[in-house]
Amino acid sequence: MLRTHRRKIIGDITSRKTRTLLVTLSVFVGVLGVVVLITLGELITRQLEKDLNPREMAMLRIYLDQPVGRRADNDAVLQLLRSRPGVTNVEGQAVFGFQWKLPEDAEFRNGQMYAYSEPFGSIDLEPVRLVRGRYPTPNTGEAAIEIRMAQKYGIRLGNTITAQRNGFGTAELKVVGLIFQPYLYVGSTENTESVYLAYSDAQNILRFTGFSSIYVRFTDFATARERSSEFRRVISNLTPYSIAFYLLDNPQKNAFIVGARQFSQVLTILALVAMVVANFLVTNVINTVVAEQRQQIGAMKAIGATRADILIIYLGLALAYGVMGTIPGVLAGLPIGRAVAVKAAPIANTLLEDTTPPLIAVTVGLGMGLVVPVLAALVPVLSGSRVTILEAMTDRGIRSTYGKGLLAALIARSPLPGTLEHAVNNILRHKSRLMLTLLTLTLATASFMGMYAVFNRLNGVITDIRAELSLDFSVDTARLSVFSVMQSLLSEEPISEIQPGVAVEVTVNDPVEAAETAEEPPASEAAPHIFVTAIDPTANARDITLIQGTGWQEDPTRSGVVITEEIADRFDKSVGDEITLSSAENTRTYPIIGIAEYPLQTAFMPSDELAAFIGTLRDAPEPNAYWREVTVANGDARLADSSNSDTVWAVGIDERVGRFLAPSFSVDQPGVIISRDLADALGVAEGDTLTLRAASDSLIGALLDTPKTTYPILRVADIDPAQISFILRQAPEGALDAADVRLIALHWTALADLVHEDYREFTPRTFRVDLADPFDPRLFARPVPVYADQVDFADRVADTILSLGVVMSFASLLMALVGGIGLFTLTSMSVHERQREIGVMRSVGATSGVIIRQFLTEGIVLGLGAWLFALPISYFLSRLLLASVPFNEVIRFEYTLRAPVLGLAGMLIITVLATLYPAIRASQKTVAEILRYQ
Question: I need a surface site. Which of 214, 280, 694, 695 has the fewest CB within 10 A?
């Protein structure tokens, strides 16, 4: 008997190959979605739970402003904080932005440098994990890098990277370890630019004065909440630090793990919904098969088949559909889900180590693919098994009640066109099939519109992420590359003579070194520069710690230079060697009489000797501190306020500041940037031109008929005096009115040309050094803590949100595909079972176009009905999905009207595509073919 059952099932599968293919495809798509989405969620959640140990997490994270002045005594600070009641551990981090490059690179990149109060390997609070190699040893020029950075740039153990020092000079760092940082540091990027150093080495390069953050763990989270306020007061009142902001977090409710679990659950729900929708098609197909084979069921019962036999045959058919769709769905879903998880893992700040397929994905995929089709077919099969022999033999395919009843009467009396009325009657002919088909399309359409509404909202957040997350605007000085803007930039007043503490840039012009280098060295290496600082050998020599040689200790009148270790290593020099230096006027060779340990990369020379070597110091424009008054000369742009003259302050800026203010700023195509107040007073806007000349009351204006120069207005900047003072320096008194900021900015060379000042004769790059305290804020840019880099952090948040939106879009397209396959299958079956009707239409003269329009109309009517039912469901679904997204507390819910519009358009496209081919097939049938079939 089982053999008979099997032959019957195989016969039904092979007799209608197109239907079998479509039903199998629907199950395959559903199982594929289940396995992919569950695998994605489970792999990432499993890895995060492994990476993030609640016992290692800080309960209180305090982000600090740098102490002003000398370095903080961090050991004393940590000892004080660790003694507070309820505290079990306190550790400090120094995480700052810096610039780095590979040896072969021409430009520096922005990165993040991490250092810790504890030695590597002894960090207890949110420690890094060593992947390969070893941790860097202090004071050896060694570093470890994030493994994602190594993968991105192809860096291997033993390679070197070049770090830009704060001040001037560079440091070569040898990569000895690859590290993975599973814990997110506020403000960090995706860790593809992260370098890890011992605290002393990092401080020596960046010259920060203390920690950027302090992590604290208490006996429990209740104690943390209770003691947090008092602990923060201790920091503010008893340490040199001030608090920028703080975060109090319960390690047992870590946002990443909770968010990953929550989103994994949402993905699972979406996958299950897709699978259920796919199996509605199985229900409809089995229902149709049973209806088509009522006479076969009667015949089987007539020869002795029982209800159990009928159940086995048709439930076995549903199981066969499930097996054919489930096996390839699981086999394809596991590698696809793994690949997607590997790509998505960095967004969740993790790297997948264990990519073993999660058992739950396999179990749910097999269970849903095999069990759900059988359950979906149970109701129509039970109904079919109750058919009696008499009912089966007397069935003519249409019920006696067809065309009767209230609904039929309303349709008959409605003023609908004939084609539409016929379509509605055909749709209502099989009410159970109609309900299942309508439910399938409704869920698919509601899912598509709901997820699109969420994706659209997330895109809106990405468009203006700073506003959505209430991030304040911050200027990252590292982006302005203050390291390379040194010409008198850091002096409060021009330097007119060489005195002790004045540093001057000179060129190293050593013929011996040149002969040993490559035949055609790069231009950047052909004329290397160093700074030489003037000292008084009798008064300042004690400020320099010599590690080799005697310098001027024995003879203050001795001629020669003392160089630092960095310069000695850079040029392979030692005590007793000579070094050839060139200034604008002289080239001389000096003996090296000492090597010193000093925080600045500089050489030292007696002030009188350095003054004789350098020659004349000429004044020159100082970029970003170069102010001159100019006159607006074009007649159609006069100042609107008649109480003011046409004279306006102009400032000469360098290219970096110019591009910071206006991305289109270029030295090759000069233009101006003006303040909003000046633009309003002149009645001009971006894209207009401005004609300028030197102020008429200047000496130049008195002696010459000063020419005019016209510049395009590149940008109208909304900027206030506080922001101006942050970017520009040495503004003349009265130049900036807080209530009416009138300012023009242009490249300093263009301003010098405009006012006829010769900028071709540069003064040597000079600045002042406090020899006793070289950590002068004028010499060192204030290091920018990573937490302050809100732009990069906002981009990271945007990437995370966008990735979630992409996953939702995939799920919505999956739903749409399942709905389209279902409608296509049902339309194909409808064409097959309505051949008699098509034959009648043909016999009374219906053309192919009429038949095509009839089936298209039925599909469109069904799609429109599903769209109407889907509208309210999609609204509530979008609210539910948005609640599962990270950062949802700062994202306002909005249901965009584009969702229903696109849903309607998509529904019409799907219904037309799903019904067009079956409609064309129906239109091609002839009366002869139909009569032979019958």
Answer: 695
